[in-house]
Amino acid sequence: MKNRFRNLLKPNPALEPNMNFVDIFIRYNIMIAIGFVAVLTHTPALIIICPFLLIEGMMGWCVVHHVLGINHHCEN
């Protein structure tokens, strides 16, 4: 519990990659599934979400990870 709060206080430069390959792979698969459902159901809200997931996967940077101080990019 203390480690989580310690990570919040560490400086974390904006837009520095904070996802590893597994996170990016999962993000792409979720994007493909949401995109498939969005095309079949013609739901504009789902169609709007897909590009954001694509951009996060391409950049290797996640907003939620940045806010919480999580950095999987440097883990072995």
Could you walk me through the main structural features you see in this protein, from its secondary elements to its overall organization?
It is a single chain. The protein is mainly alpha-helical and 76 residues long. It has one domain (18-76). The protein is built from 4 helices and no strands. It has helices at residues 2-9, 21-41, 44-59, 63-68. The longest helix has 21 residues, at 21-41. The two termini are 22 Å apart. 7% of the residues are buried. The mean pLDDT is 83.
Number of strands: 0
Strand content: under 5%
Query: Roughly how many Å is the radius of gyration?
Result: 15 Å
> Helix/strand-derived class?
mainly alpha
> How much is the average pLDDT?
83
List the helices and strands and how they pair.
Blueprint: H1 2-9, H2 21-41, H3 44-59, H4 63-68
Quick summary:
With 76 residues, this protein is an all-alpha fold. 67% of the residues lie in helices and 0% in strands.
